[in-house]
Amino acid sequence: MDRGIWNRLKSKITRRRASGVLTAVLLGATLAAGAAPSEDTLVVTSTNGSPNNIVVFKLQTAATPSLSLVNMLATGGQGGAPGASAGAVQFQGELGAVVNYGSNNVSQLVRTGDSISVARTINLASNCTKPVSAALSETQLFVAGANCAESHAWPIGIVDGSVVALGNSSAAQIVVGETWAALTMTSGALLQLPLSAAGALKGASTPVTLPGDADNTPLGAAFWGNLLAFNPAHSADSFALVNSTGAVFPVLGPEPPYPSNAPCWLAKGPGNIWYSGNSPGKAISIFFSDSEGGVFYKSVPLAGSPTDLAVSPDRHWLAVIYTAGGDGYVAVFSIDSYGDLTPVAISSPVGASSFDGVAFSQ
């Protein structure tokens, strides 16, 4: 790792002792003191190849909208993750993360001005392998792989809290709420993962009892505060809510159900809106909800099959990665005050047959 980047990281970290546990807290929103805020909106994805590369696009919305390639650089690790996962790329503030499935590690990303670079490599906990999904909180990096779910003090990267053993290698996505995290398993399980006061994983996982109409192939997930939503993609009720007590509220998805439609990947929009990537339907499916139920609204067509999606921190944009004609694409939509989507820009092919994970940096 570049010494200058590491020194800037260290300058923003203070350590505190709470209940006998040493935690790391990132102070401030920027890495470099006095750095001017940038107005550029960047979209980051990965190729999931060998080597694994991150791909950075710039969203231009003035005059003629475009999504132009900024750069493409190696993470230093290997990809190779299977398709049934989400959250491979994450960004929060000036720092991001991308999983390297074939190298058993995570690459930490850093934004400086309008450029993104690879800062360092974070290894998984001992005996944990094949990371497929990551999530970020202010003080923790969460990672799920073939046999473990784990948390790392962020941004320094040391393993923090419990390392949770998984019963099989079907992990799809890990996400984090206020007092608990969740992990979807394509085998048909949804796991609750409690958090410590410091925000790290604490103790063993607890399976959520899923009803028969919402238990087939849980894939994408996202939190709204402490309320989880997830996609049991191959169920007729292909959207469901789960509160912190484990109560489940299934919601009927678009019809006809799987295999014609299957909302698979999920992002929380503004207000009570959720966006889901509907792979076989080649669409973005939109849901509304309250805390105990919801309704499918409509689907917005895509030119290919989506595999992940993300909403920008300012809630103005939605990015979707999809495949069509043997190439990977990123499509960006604007989000209006009602949550409706308008196409804005689509990336040009960059030589990648598909992308894995997508995130905004603003």
Secondary structure elements and pairings:
Layout lengths: L2 H9 L1 E6 L2 E6 L14 E6 L6 E8 L5 E9 L14 E4 L2 E6 L4 E8 L2 E9 L9 E4 L3 E5 L3 E6 L10 E2 L5 E6 L3 E6 L3 E6 L11 E2 L10 E7 L2 E6 L6 E4 L5 E4 L11 E6 L4 E6 L4 E7 L4 E8 L3 E7 L5 E8 L2 E9 L5 E6 L11 E4 L1
Antiparallel strand pairs: 1-2, 3-4, 3-30, 4-5, 6-7, 7-8, 8-9, 10-11, 11-12, 12-13, 14-15, 15-16, 16-17, 18-19, 19-20, 20-21, 22-23, 23-24, 24-25, 26-27, 27-28, 28-29
CATH architectural designation: 7 Propeller
- Could you tell me the number of beta strands? 30
What do the pLDDT scores average to? 90
Q: Using the alpha-carbon principal axes, give the shape.
A: globular
- Number of helical segments with 4 or more residues: 1
Give the N-terminus to C-terminus distance in angstroms: 23 Å
User: Which homologous superfamily in CATH is the superfamily?
Assistant: YVTN repeat-like/Quinoprotein amine dehydrogenase
* Main β-sheet description: 4 strands, antiparallel
Provide the β-strand percentage band: over 45%
Pick out the low-confidence regions. Answer: 1-37
The third-level CATH topology is Methylamine Dehydrogenase, Chain H
Helix content: under 10%
- Tell me the domain tally: 1
Radius of gyration: 19 Å
